[in-house]
Design brief:
The structure is a single chain. The chain is of the alpha/beta class. The chain is about 35% helix and about 15% strand. It is built from 13 helices and 13 strands. It has helices at about 45-55, 65-80, 90-100, 115-120, 125, 145, 180-190, 205-210, 250-260, 265-275, 280-305, 325-330, 355-370, and strands at about 15, 25, 85, 105-110, 130-135, 160-170, 195-200, 225-230, 240-245, 305-310, 315-320, 335-340, 345-350. The strands form three sheets. Strands 3-9-8-7-6-4-5 form a seven-stranded mixed beta sheet, sandwiched between helices. Helix 8 (about 205-210) packs across helix 11 (about 280-305) and helix 11 (about 280-305) packs parallel to helix 13 (about 355-370).
């Protein structure tokens, strides 16, 4: 095995593909990390689908054949009433979805750790014009009792009206809701006159880990609107707002345009979603990244000196290690501190993470712990 301490570097490699086009590679494709599943490239099957869609002319702004066929694919996963609205990115999907589910005076209840609260630059509030009502959670998951901490004052004109409960599956801490937990949340929210939004940036990882169809914990459990994520599971770009209950939203098309999420060449988003979902690519990729996270967690536990903070249920490993060890390890592999003061880190696996990648990382971690 090559020395894992060696990180390749050097000047960009000039490439000269057939046809005379001078392309230039600005990175070393052998360098790997555990910072984010967004760091991975696009799956070869996704790139092949894009090449197929690239020929000839197609009607713009979603009137193309690929976006039309995508609806049938979504029906196979989420039922006949599901309608997909492709967008550019996950923040855009969340902002469009939550705007469509709320009134101008509305509020959204979410976990304090929710992506819409911590990682979207205030976009739901600044761009969406809604209020986030956050709740601390021990594991990133809401419960009916936790929802009730913010689900009050519906008739109080001095307080933003709670109208939506937003959950994330898998959560920002790598944990999973069971279908029964989501069903209970949806029943509770609906009983209070509220709707339920699911941020599914890593929905495929959740379905793979639970070994159930995605519908089991979405439309079948009572979720009204889904932000479907594909970029973290091998797509080049693009996500989708998937409306599961048409009565839960209004003016999605207009809000998508207003939020600068309407792609003129939408076929290139839709064909990726189709390639991911028409077969089992979404599931194969998610199962693999989950398996690599389990391998990583098992290896970390065997080393000692590192605490696994949350159950490893999807493709994320959260750990606590001595701060100086984390700093040194970062020089060898890219990853992020989750709480630098506490020494908490997050390690993510992706569809292209290999067993060798994991073993090299564990070797480096062992060395730094012993240093």
């Amino acid at each position: 095995m090559a020395d894992p301490r060696v990180v390749k570097s050097g000047r960009p490699e000039s490439l000269a593909p057939a046809g005379g086009t001078d392309a230039r590679r600005h990175h070393d494709p052998q360098v790997r990390g555990f910072a984010s599943d967004n760091y991975a490239g696009a799956h070869p099957e996704i790139l092949a689908a894009l090449a197929v869609a690239n020929g000839g002319h197609q009607v713009s702004y979603g009137e193309d054949d690929y976006t039309g066929h995508l609806q049938q694919v979504m029906h196979s996963h989420f039922g006949a009433s599901a309608e997909a609205f492709p967008v550019f990115n996950g923040t855009g999907a969340n902002v469009v979805a939550l705007q469509a589910m709320t009134e101008r005076w509305g509020a959204v209840i979410c976990a304090e750790s929710a992506h819409i609260n911590t990682d979207e630059g205030g976009a739901p509030e600044r761009m969406g014009g809604l209020k986030l009502l956050t709740v601390p959670t021990p594991d990133g998951k809401l419960t009916p009792d936790l929802v009730d901490r913010q689900a009050f004052g519906f008739d109080d004109e001095h307080r933003a009206m709670p109208q939506v409960v937003s959950i994330t599956q898998s959560t920002e801490l790598g944990t999973l809701y069971t279908p029964d937990e989501i069903r209970a949340l949806c029943a509770h929210a609906h009983g209070l006159g509220m709707k339920v939004h699911l941020d599914g940036a890593r929905i495929a990882n959740a379905a793979a880990a639970l070994d159930v169809p995605m519908r089991t914990f979405t439309n079948a459990a009572g979720v009204d609107v889904l932000s479907f994520g594909g970029t973290k599971n091998g797509m080049l770009f693009g996500e989708a707002v998937v409306v599961l209950d048409p009565d839960a939203v209004r003016a999605v098309k207009r809000l998508r345009k207003l939020s600068m999420q309407l792609s003129s060449k939408m076929r290139f988003v839709s064909v990726q979603l189709e390639a991911l979902l028409a077969g089992d690519l979404w599931l194969r990729s998610a199962r693999h990244s989950n398996a690599m996270a389990r391998r990583l967690a098992e290896g970390v536990r065997a080393l000692g000196g590192v605490e696994i903070l949350y159950p490893v249920q999807a493709n994320a490993v959260f750990a606590r290690l001595p701060h100086d060890v984390g700093v040194r390890l970062q020089k060898r592999f890219r990853f992020y501190f989750w709480d630098e003061q506490a020494g908490d880190v997050r390690w993510m696996c992706s569809f292209d993470t290999t067993e060798d990648d994991v073993d090299r990382f564990l070797y480096a971690l062992k060395e730094e712990l012993a240093a």
